[in-house]
Amino acid sequence: MGSSNLEGTRINNRLPFAREGFPFIFIGSFFTLLFLYLGLMVLTVLAGFLSLFTMFFFRDPARETQVSEKSVLTPADGKILDIQHLKNGNNPLGEPAVKVSVFMSLFSVHVNRIPIGGKIMGILYNPGKFFSANLNKASEQNENNRIILQTGDGRRIVFVQIAGVIARRIVCWIKAGDHVRTGQRFGLIRFGSRLDLYLPDDTRIIVQPLHKVRAGETILGYLS
């Protein structure tokens, strides 16, 4: 894999939290201790609560991925928001596709994982708006980061990190040309967001809307 050492530590993180959360955790802890020292108990409790929530938000649990070669995993924790069959090529995949949307609430693990192993063919960042991520127009109009992947047998998929009304920071640790494995960490989105996955039209989808899913573990479907 062609990632830098810093990106590699994030992809292969062994800590309980994503490294992007450390500044927030340290700042919150500092003010909690400061307010405690000054005897400001209301502010101490508030700062302590925010610090604990920040730790909870940036948690990065270890996940074991054991799937077949054709399995496609969810790239994000949360719930299945929608499944659409797109019969024309007017979508990021450029051909008839199945679109699976996953909504991440504030309480979801926000570290994203590779849905199926292959080679990263391209990454395209698109600035945009910040509508609520559970709205359909968020797919087209919100700030997003598109990742194009080609599997070992030449199939193409596209997965898109989409910012939400609160999420204002998309993080991606991979780049074009990287060879990635199923379930590998590849980025995160801060504070509530959405991830859309575009699969070939003949993919066999086995999940339903409102199903709860876990990145790197839950199988969405199988490529043909």
Descriptive tags:
21% helix; 224 residues; three-stranded antiparallel beta sheet; eight-stranded antiparallel beta sheet; 14 strands; alpha+beta; 2 domains; Glucose Permease (Domain IIA)
In short:
With 224 residues, the chain is of the alpha+beta class. The chain folds into 2 domains: 19-57; 71-222, Glucose Permease (Domain IIA), CATH 2.70.70.
Q: How would you portray this structure in words?
A:
21% of the residues lie in helices and 33% in strands. With 224 residues, it is an alpha+beta fold. The protein folds into 2 domains: 19-57; 71-222, Glucose Permease (Domain IIA) (Distorted Sandwich). Strands 9-5-6-7-11-3-2-13 form an 8-stranded antiparallel sheet, with no helix packed on it. A hairpin with a 5-residue loop joins strand 6 and strand 7 (156-163). The chain is elongated. The mean pLDDT is 89.
Largest sheet descriptor: 8 strands, antiparallel
Quaternary structure: single chain
CATH names the topology of the largest domain as Glucose Permease (Domain IIA)
Specify the helix fraction band.
10-25%
Supply Rg: 18 Å
Q: What strand line-up does the widest sheet have? A: 9-5-6-7-11-3-2-13
Instruction: Compute the number of structural domains.
Output: 2
Mean pLDDT: 89
Any idea what the CATH architecture of the largest domain is? Distorted Sandwich
H/I helix tally: 4
